[in-house]
Design a protein that fits this description.
The structure is a single chain. It contains five helices and ten strands; from the N terminus they run ααββαββαββββαββ. The chain is α+β, with helices and mostly antiparallel strands. It has one domain. The strands form two sheets. It has a seven-stranded antiparallel sheet. Strands 3-8-5 form a three-stranded mixed sheet. The longest helix has 20 residues, at 2-21.
């Protein structure tokens, strides 16, 4: 009986490792043929940060799944004409090797810039990707996978981006992954992912 339990545990571990290794970036899942919806510049301590929101035709091809580890498993639903304010929202941190190693200090600076906008928000239309870039060394990407538009607090993006950076690569070079996610509960009216990576 123990041998069956042990072999099941080993099989489950190998399955999990292969799923994590095959992680798809939210930015890659968005696709490259989307249209830019808006651009904005945030200035913090005399440094400029670019904010770009684009449509994501690639999200429409995703079928529904419950974890970020298989972004490619989601379904699209036609957009609804509603807005939802998403502030003080919680998410689960998942570390993953998305791209090259982001630089922790640059992520902290990006977080500071976003948290200084406490009380302000940006619009994230349904099935779009909003990127926050500090010259490409650390980038946050907020994916609205839902079928309704969100009003997203800048503070939340900064705070959750810091959580990912702190948990996934603050101990570089001793223990780290090259990026990570903060994943919402992935249900209607709360279906978004924040990705942190080297842009």
């Amino acid at each position: 009986m123990q041998l069956t339990w042990l072999s099941s545990a080993v099989f489950a571990s190998f399955s999990l490792l292969s799923v994590v290794a095959a992680t798809t970036s939210v930015k890659e899942a968005c696709g490259t043929d989307g249209e830019v919806v808006s651009t904005n510049t945030i200035v913090h301590n005399n440094k400029e940060f670019q904010v770009t929101t684009r449509t994501c035709p690639g999200f429409a091809a995703l079928s529904k799944n419950t974890t970020t580890r298989s972004i490619a498993g989601r379904t699209a639903v036609p957009n609804e004409k509603r807005q939802l304010l998403t502030c003080n929202t919680d998410c689960t941190v998942e570390c993953a090797d998305i791209a090259d190693q982001p630089l922790y200090d640059y992520c902290v600076t990006l977080t500071d810039a976003l948290e200084d906008l406490d009380g302000e928000y940006f619009l994230a239309p349904a099935q779009t990707l909003t990127t926050f870039n500090d010259d490409g060394v650390c980038e946050y990407a907020y994916a609205n996978l839902d079928v309704i538009e969100y009003e997203v607090c800048y503070y939340d993006v900064g705070y959750n981006g810091f959580r990912v950076a702190d948990e996934c690569f603050s101990d570089y070079p001793y223990s780290y992954t090259a990026g990570g996610y903060c994943v919402s509960p992935e249900v209607y009216e709360n279906d978004w992912i924040l990705e942190v990576y080297y842009g």
